[in-house]
Amino acid sequence: MLKAPGAMVQCDDDPEAVYEFLCEKGWSDGLPVIPPTPERVERMLAYCDRDLDKAVVKIPPRFGAATPLRIAANAVMAGCKPEYFPLVLLALETLAEEQYNLYGTQATTHPCTPMLIFNGPIAKEVGLNSGNNVMGNYFRANAAIGRAVRLALVNIGAAIPGTGDMATAGTPAKFTFCVAENEDASPWEPLHVELGLPKEATTVTAIAAEGPHNVNDHESNTPEGILTMIAGTMANTGSNNAYYDGQPVMAFGPEHAQTVASGGMKKADVKQWLWERATIPLSKFSKEGIERRFRRKLADRFAHAPLDTPVHMWGKPEDLIIIVTGGAGKHSQWVPTFGNTRAATRALKRADGELVKSIHELKRG
Amino acid sequence: MAQLTKRGLIAAVVCSDTFMKLGTAQAKVFGVPDLPLLKIQHPLGGLNMDKVIERAGVALPQLIKVVKDKQT
Fold first, then answer.
1. Is B22 near chain A, with CB under 8 Å?
2. Which of A20, A51, A224, A311 falls 20 to 30 Å from B52 in CA-CA distance?
3. Chain B residues 28-57 with CB within 8 Å of chain A
């Protein structure tokens, strides 16, 4: 049995009483949770090969120590199976990468949240959905893993709306935003392979993202047609990506991806094509925006730029992250970001540093 | 500012009223719970120069008081 008396609280074990208690304490996302009893937390750690009391990350703005023990309590609350836990841990370790800017993304007024993209065999093994409704409801692994991360950000990191999380409006994606890439349906190499990791690795890529913006295109049947519609969706003046060097995500639906790849375009070609065309003429921004932001803060490029100068939606072509996910249908998803952030990717490894090929390698005992 | 305070310099943070709770909590997190927060009206972003000057006029006396208090 776990020994964590300092962290123990007691309340009536009626489910509604537990729900009321946790909401009053501020230890929920507003939805009912599973009570994290010592027995449940212990079961949650069945696939954890780490020191249970050693922090894997200190989560801002409180800089609370996220130990496996504490993270497991949040995973229980979120509805995780023990097999999901290593992926929750991996996601939080990835958020700790400096370039992700966890502090800024936690406390900002912008509506960003960690978008978790899983690749590799264990995503499939634990049941992460990569097909129909991949960014929606219904699938336990997607719902619970993303929710566990959010609960940890709130309960350990104190990302509490109005005091630690200053989001003006936030986003529904803060409940969970967790997908797997549909590698089987993709005409291109999966994201983790593109990043230089072995295909047999299981990885998470974390992006400080807004919720997804749909691209509906039932008419185009050429690569240029699909990409024209996507470029049009990407180009909007209110996006942080118009000003900062973030790495936005283009999540192609498999059907759109097949059409785009049918003419032989590789990922790099798609990125270049979209970077060149997903632009907004400077004149489309407000007079104040032009004077205060473009002319001054971005003076190196825009101090004396004519009003027809194109503003690109992200810094360099290669910075666009491309994945293929979802099921049948003529839709894709454009995912803008916080901007002042870079994506971070980590592979799931055992404590000895070897890649994990199956989640069962991590089973204790 | 936390680092400057720890090195013995007089430091303060301009903070809009909406962000005072965050500022207070962060001062504690960074080990300088007494870090002076110069409270001004929210917002700080998107202001014209008249409003910026107005807020500076609110912050400046607070800053002067911080400096004087630290010197006595």
1. yes
2. A311
3. 29
Chain B positions touching A61 (Cβ under 8 A) are 22, 25-26, 29
Q: Kindly tell me if the per-residue pLDDT of A246 is higher than 90.
A: no
Q: What is the DSSP string of A176-243?
A: --EEE--GGG-SS--HHHHTT--TT--EEEEEEE---EEEE-SS--SHHHHHHHHHHHH--TT-GGGT
Residue-wise pLDDT tens digits, A73-118: 999 999 999 999 999 999 999 999 999 999 999 999 999 999 999 9
Omega before residue A248 within 30° of 0, cis: no
A171-216 tens-digit pLDDT:
999 999 999 999 999 999 999 999 999 999 999 999 999 999 999 9
What is the interface size between A and B, counted as CB pairs within 8 Å?
19
Provide, as residue numbers in chain B, all residues whose Cβ is less than 8 Å from the Cβ of A107: 22
